[in-house]
Structures are given as structure tokens and as C-alpha cells.
Amino acid sequence: MTDEKHRESEEEPIPAWQLFYDNIFLLFFFGIAIPTLVYTVWGLMEIVQIPQLPIAP
Amino acid sequence: MAAEDYRICSFTGLKIHKPTEDLIKWNTVTAILFLALGGLMGFLIALTRWPSVHYLSLQNYYRYLTLHGIDALLLWIIFFEIGLVYFTSAVLLNTRTVIPWAGWTGYALMLVGAVFVNFVVFAGKADVMFTSYVPLQADAVYYLGIIIFAVGALTCYGHFFANIIQAKRDGAYKHSLPLGSFGLAAACIIAVLTLAHGAVIMIPVFFWSMGLIHYIDPGTYRLIFWGLGHPSQQINVCAMVSVWYMISAFTVGGKPVNEKLSRTAFVLYIFFINVASEHHLLVDPIFSNWHKIINTSYMMHLAVFASMVHAFAVPASVEVALRNQGYTRGLFEWLKKAPWSNPAFSAMALSMVLFGFLGGITGVIFGTEQYNIIRHNTFAIPGHFHGTVVGGTTLAFMGFTYLLIPYIFRRELVMQGMAKWQPYVYGIGVAILSISMMSAGSFGVPRRHYDITFSGAPFSFTFDPAIDMFMSMVGIGGILAAIGGVMFILVAMGSIMYGKRLAS
Amino acid sequence: MAIKEPERIWWKPYTRDEKIWVAVSLLWMFTSFVFMPVYHFAGSQNPPYETYRVSPEEFDKLVEAMIEKYKVGEENGMPVVHPDPDEPVFIRASMWQWYPVVELEKGKTYKIHLSSMDIQHGFSILPINMNFMVLPNYDYVLTLTPTTEGEYYIVCNEFCGMGHHMMVGKLYVK
């Protein structure tokens, strides 16, 4: 990359996706929320919904 | 911060802060010592599963198997990763560790927890395996040790975030973390999720073991425990991939071919890899098929895609770097001229092959809802994770140790001839071990089983005679891996203690 | 470099070989992704998901009632039962026993209830190698149709204490 081009690129705005990837704490939020909801909370909901064995004496 | 606290590394030009250096040193040495202990246990276990040797007694087999899981899977890997936390959040950014005393507190807690757990298992009060499924009960000290260790580990993983916030304020980086640090950021995010699950389940179990709580639901325990147990392996995956990129950069000057591609792969790990915990629950009662299908297939395969990306990007970074060095003849001159006698490089290359072909692919297959019926709890499962965690993570970390010794310990490697061969011996041993475990498992040989001739049982089942060969190969692979392990310990500890001092 | 901060803007289009690799990988992953749900509806062997809560005492009573009604003999001190295909079959896991021995008829569909009296066990039918978890306080119902006559063994494959390796049961298909 030449110096001239380099200076030009300083003016360019940073793409939104790059800003998202650089935001570690936003990634942190999704990284905790997704598995907690999809795996843990959903799993716990299924555990509490299990019925009693109907033919139990 | 006084300028004299820093030195400039003569190999890498990185600015290294003295307290950071001490933290990395202590965590790495502790890790290597636990690897030695865990490896010894693994060696004895492999000899026991070799039918014609059947070395350990019944009680010691299960006791050492519990310890093998704790020392080799948990302690060696996490202590080493804490070293990586400081390396990537301070050394790579040419900045400092913000709160060294928190680092030392975390280290002390981890060590105390580790000693508690080792002690109580050796004393015979916690023959419960790594998973400690309730209502199988261990002594309260066991759970206490795990909790103390986890609190310490959380302190250290959390330190990563403190360091990068401060580094940005100090102007150590402007917008984006280096890729090596970004990978460790993914690892630390997953670590927080993992340790939170650990707290949710281990604290009640601790009270239960003291008699304060009367009942822990075994289904809930399995769900939450695997929210701890499986993602803790995903911490290793992120740290290992990040180590691959760093070794490529340090040894051949490799540069990620496309930052966007590599970072996207890490982001997919952060979001989707953790639901793979479900793999342990596929043939459990309780969970609906949709819970099983969504968690193992839909989400998981996005994470598998991420691994495919790394499998492309890391070798590509090596190829581009070597081609730039002039190895451009034909398609494969670069591969032939790669530094195969540099143990850091060869460890990385072998780690990628073993992780991908032995660990990764089998993991995806065994994690299929239907296929899991014929693999769950068979010997094939340890075969799979010896491919990922031993062939992959452990070998990559061994390779990185060969870089830490000059960069951080400032010592020259001793016994370089042996070091050159170490990754190959270890890698081939682990490959034999892993393949033969998976082969035996496909005949239904159970894991965690003392005697597959079932002596003393009311009915006796005889396996297909083909397993004799596979089970013997487990012993042979174990011996070869143990030789490779001893070579590593000799070179690493020898260099750290007696290596020629290097001027900084 | 992976060890240095990248250039200011690194969000750039993929090159041609990157695009090919990404496309091939995504296609492969998509194939794997659809396999499980498709097989779940089209396939003949899926993990069962019928499950209930049951206390060890209740389950034990069900096992004993079945033995009383359908006992046809004894083998190695353990009762052998031959239940009607319409009736539920109960197999009890405990340290270190699969109880009782069951005879099934080929081609008939059974509901096999599994539960544990004490700790977790692993239900592994050999030599066909099918594996399921058995938990205390949970009843796991396998709906299965035996298709091959013969003697089968039930081995425990979840660690359950020092007698774990002696926990072997038996199953006949006649």
C-alpha cells in the first residue's frame, strides 16, 4: 500500500461488522446469552415438565 | 509504571513487563508439573487396559483414572491457558498486567484447589471420576477443591478483560486486538460461561455432600455439569487455535491471509460452539428430540464450519509466508522447506492434523443423535477426546512452551536433538492410542471399565476377538505417548532450570 | 500478523480460493445439519424420548409385580421373565445388577422401562452395541422391536463403584 492510498484510507469509515467484532463486550453478551437460553434454560424447562409415570402403583 | 520494569525481548521485539513475565513463568511451570502427574496416571491406565498386562489393582485403576482426568484435562490445560491469558493480553500488546496481585491471588486459589482435589482423591475419598455424577458422592473436600480452583481460574480469566480495557486506554492498540489475543478473548468469554455453570451446580453439590441439602436431581446435574464440562473443552479449542496462529507467526512469520475470515470463525465459536454440551445427553432420558437436534446439529455445525475455516487459514498463513521467503517452486516446495525440525512448528502442524482428522471429524460424527446410540460411553468417546485434547491442545501447548522458554524464561533449549523428535514421538503415540480406542469402542467396549472379561459377574460376555489387538495397541500407543511426554518434561524442565541464560 | 494489531480496516472481500473453501464447507455443514431432522422422521432407529418421573420404591414394586406375573424360570439365581408383548417390561439397575433376565419375542414391539435404584448406570446391549443412560428417579422408556433371535448381554458402561465391571445382565430374543 502506498503512502498516498494509506492516507486516503484513514478517511474511510470503519465497516459496521468490523466494529461489531471489535466490541468484545457485545460478543461477550451474545456468547453467554445464546447457550444459556438455548441449552440451559430450555433444558431446565423440559426437566420440570416431565410427568409422573402414569402406571406407578 | 516505571520504565525499568520493562525489557525488550531480543527475539520478538515485544516489550515485556516484569510482573507479567513472573505470572507466565509460575503458571507454565505449575502446568507442566501437573502434566507430568496426569501423564503418569494416563500411562498406568493404558497399561491396565492392555489385557495381557492389566497392571493396576481394581481400586487404584478408578482412583488414578479420576486423577488422570483432573490433572491432565483440567489442571495442566487451565494453568497453561492462564499463562496464555497474560501472554496475549499484556505481552502481545506491549503493555502491562493491570492488577498483578489479583493474578497472584488467582494463582494461589487455583493451586490450593488443585492440591485439595489431588490430596482427597489420593486419600481414596473421591473415587467418582472426573464427572462425579450424583448421587455418587465424594468427600466434601473434593467439591470444595473444585470450587476454590474455579474461583481462582475465574479471577485469572477475568484478568484478561481488565488488561485489554487498560491497554486500550493506554493506547496499546487502537481498534482491533491482534488475532492471537482475539482468540484468547473468545476463550475467556467461554470460560466465564463455563465457570458460571460450574458455580451453579458445584456449590449445591458441595452442600449436599455435607448433608445440608438432601437431594440433587441427577438429570439437572447432568444438564448443568455438561454446561461446565464440555465448554471447558471449547476454551481449549479457542486457545489452541490461537496458539496455532501465534506459532505460525513466530516461527515462519505467517500472517492470517484474511483477518475477516479468521475472526468470523472465532465469533462463530463464541456464539455457537457451547451448545455442543448436548452431545453428552443424546441418549439420556428427559430431553426432547428438538432440544437434542437444535443443540447438536443446527447450532453446532456453524461452529464446525468455523473449524473448517481455521483448517484453511492457518496452513494458508504458513504457505504465504514461506512462498514470500522464496520457496515458490511447484505446488509443494513450501511444505518441503517448512521448518520441520523446529519442535514448535512441527508440534503445531501435528496438532492441526490430529485435532482435525482424529478429534474433530469423529466428534461431529459421534455427536449425531442417531449415531450416538452406538457410541455413547464406549471406548470410542475417550478415543475422540484424546484426539482433540491430547493430540490437539496438549501438543499445541507443548509447541508453544518451546517458544516461551527463550521468550519468557530467557533460556536456551537443552537437548535440542531430543526436542526435535519429541512432537513426532508424542504425536504418533497419541494417534495410535486414539485410533485403537475408537476401533475397540466400535465393538462396544465400555469406557471407564476395569475388566472387560467381566470376572465375577453373574453372566459373562466375550467380545469379538478383534478387540484384543486394539486393546493391546492402546497399551503400545500409551507407552509411546508416555515416552514423548517424558521427553517433553525433560526438555522443558531441563531448559527452565539448567538452560543457558540468554541475554535480553 | 496474528501477534500484531491488524491494519485499520481489515473487513475486506474474500479472494477466490477463500470463497470456494467457504462455499464447500457451508455446503458440507448444511448437509450434516439436515441429516439429523430428516432421519428423525424418515429413519427407523432414533433415540427414544418417552420419559417419566418415578421413585425407586415405585419402580421396584413394578419390577416385582412383573416378575410375579411372568416368571418362567431362574438363571444363575436371577428370575427369568417372559412378559406379554402388550405389557410394559421393567428392567431395574442397581449396584451391581441388571434385574431380572428378560425373554422377548422376535418381531413383537415392546416398551422397556429402565430406571435405577441408586446411582447412574449405563445400559449397553452387547454384542449389538446400543447404549442408553439409566438415572435414578427417572424412567426411560425404550420402544423396541427385536429382529434377530439370540442371547444378548447388558453391560453397565457408566462408572458405578468398585463392582462396576461385574454388572452384567442378560436378555433373550426367542
Main structural class of chain C: alpha+beta
| Main β-sheet description of chain C | 7 strands, mixed
Low-confidence stretches of chain A: none
**Helix and strand element order of chain C:** HEHEEEEEEEEEEE
The oligomeric status of these chains comes to heterotrimer
Strand order of the largest sheet of chain C: 2-3-6-12-11-8-9
Rg from Cα of chain A:
25 Å
The largest inter-chain interface, given as chain pair and residues per side, is:
B-C, 93 and 73 residues
Radius of gyration from the alpha-carbon trace of chain C, in angstroms: 24 Å
Please write the string of helix (H) and strand (E) elements of chain A: HHH
- How many beta-strand elements of chain A? 0
Number of strands of chain C: 12
Topology (SSEs and partners):
The complex is a heterotrimer of chains A (57), B (504) and C (174).
Chain A (H helix, E strand, L loop, with lengths): L2 H9 L4 H7 L1 H25 L9
Chain B lengths: L5 E3 L6 E3 H32 L8 H34 L8 H23 L17 H30 L9 H31 L8 H12 L1 H22 L6 H14 L16 H36 L8 H4 L6 H24 L13 H28 L8 H26 L24 H33 L6
Antiparallel strand pairs in B: 1-2
Chain C lengths: L15 H27 L7 E4 L2 H15 E5 L2 E4 L7 E6 L2 E3 L1 E4 L5 E7 L4 E6 L3 E5 L3 E7 L5 E7 L11 E6 L1
Parallel strand pairs in C: 3-6, 4-7, 6-12
Antiparallel strand pairs in C: 1-10, 2-3, 4-5, 7-10, 8-9, 8-11, 11-12
What's the gist of this structure?
In chain A, 72% of the residues lie in helices and 0% in strands. With 57 residues, chain A is mostly helical. Chain C folds into two domains: 10-46; 51-173, Cupredoxins -  blue copper proteins (Immunoglobulin-like).
How would you explain this protein's 3D organization?
The complex is a heterotrimer of chains A (57), B (504) and C (174). With 57 residues, chain A is mainly alpha-helical. Helices cover 72% and strands 0% of the residues of chain A. Chain A has helices at 3-11, 16-22, 24-48. Chain B has 504 residues and is mostly helical. In chain B, 69% of the residues lie in helices and 1% in strands. Chain B has helices spanning 18-49, 58-91, 100-122, 140-169, 179-209, 218-229, 231-252, 259-272, 289-324, 333-336, 343-366, 380-407, 416-441, 466-498, and strands at residues 6-8, 15-17. In chain B, β1 (6-8) and β2 (15-17) form a beta hairpin. The mean pLDDT of chain B is 93. Chain C is α+β, with helices and mostly antiparallel strands and 174 residues long. Chain C has helices at 16-42, 56-70, and strands at residues 50-53, 71-75, 78-81, 89-94, 97-99, 101-104, 110-116, 121-126, 130-134, 138-144, 150-156, 168-173. Chain C has a 7-stranded mixed beta sheet. In chain C, strands 1-10-7-4-5 form a 5-stranded mixed beta sheet, with helices on one face. Chain C is elongated, with a radius of gyration of 24 Å. The termini of chain C are far apart. The chains are: A mainly alpha (57), B mainly alpha (504), C alpha+beta (174). The interface between B and C is large, with 93 and 73 residues.
